[in-house]
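Listing S7. Sequence submitted for prediction.
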Amino acid sequence: MGVMEKVNSIKSKYLVYTSAGDHSNLHYWLKGIDGKEECRKNFDLWVTYYGDVKNKYRGISDFYNERKDGKFPNLLYVYQNKRKILDQYQAVFVLDDDIILDTYAINRLFEIREQYNLWLLQPAFHPKGKISHPITRMNIKCFMRYTNFVENTCPLFRKDKLDAFMRVFDPVLKGWGIDFWYHHVLGEHPKKIAIVDALPCINPHDSAKDGHREIELLEKKTMRINNYIKIRKKYKLIERSHREFARIEKSPNR
C-alpha cells in the first residue's frame, strides 16, 4: 500500500499516472512503437499496481504503490496521502494502462496543452482500436479539435483542474460516468478542452485482451452504471451532448 519514491526529487513538471494490472502496455509509453528511435521522456511516471505480483512495475516507475481499485479511486488515494508530491506538477495525464501511445506522442501532448493553455485534452482514438464516442475518433484532416468532451480513458488535465475534480470525486465510481462528472465540474468552454488528432492512440478492443476487461473483475458493468445514476442524481450532474466548437486543420508543415 505504501508509496515508493525512486528518486529524491521531481524530474519533470509533467506526470503520467496509471493504475496498472498484469496485462498493461506501459512499455510503449517508455520505448516507442514499431521500432521508432527511442526518445527521452519529458514526464515522470506514477504507477499504482492492482495485481498480485509484488513490485511488478517498481523498476520502471518514478513513483509506485500497490492498491486494488479503479484508476480514479486509486488516484484519489494518492491525492489524500501524497498531495505534496502531486502539487509539484503542472499537468497530469491519467492513462488507462492498456492504451498504446509512444513516448514522443506523450511528450508532445504535454507541450500542446501548455502551448494552447488547455484545461483538458486527449489524444484522438485511432480506428484500429475501440471507439466508444464518435467525437473521439481520429480526424485525419485535423491537427486538433476544440470540443466539450474528453473520455476518461486518457484525459490530460491542467493540474488545478484535476484538483477541482478530486475535491468532489466519490470513489464509488469505478469508471462509468466519471468523464461526465469532471466535465460538469469544469463547465463548457469553447477553447479550453480539445481532442488532438495529430497524435492518436490505440484503445485495444476487448478481443485483443482475450475478450475480457479487468474492470469487470473489479465491478460489473451493471453496478458501475447504477452507481453513476445515484451519483448523477445526488450531485445533479449535467450531461451535455458532445459538441465540436472549432478545429485547427493540419498544415503542410505538420
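Caption to Listing S7: primary sequence and predicted C-alpha cells for the chain studied. Residues 21 and 214 are 8 Å apart (CA to CA). DSSP finds eight helices and ten strands in the chain.
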